[in-house]
Specification:
By secondary structure, this protein is α+β, with helices and mostly antiparallel strands. It has one domain: RutC-like (60s Ribosomal Protein L30, Chain: A). The chain is built from 1 helix and 3 strands. Strand 1, helix 1 and strand 2 form a beta-alpha-beta unit.
């Protein structure tokens, strides 16, 4: 699994919060490769975060 997070107005103090929330819901035991990017805006004017994930599902 690999995730990319795009966060409007990202600040260094947000990083521990984002990691803690992510570990609660998706990747506590095996954190995926990830990219965290601060952006000025997203497509939706009221969007604050966008998450893209790529995963391989074994047959």
């Amino acid at each position: 699994m690999k995730t990319s997070l795009f966060v409007v107005g990202l600040k260094p103090e947000h990083v521990p919060i984002i990691r803690e929330v992510g570990s609660r819901y998706a990747w506590a035991e095996h954190p995926p490769a990830s990219t965290l990017v601060g952006v000025s805006a997203l497509v939706g004017p009221d969007w604050l975060i966008e998450i893209e994930a790529v995963a391989v599902v074994a047959e």
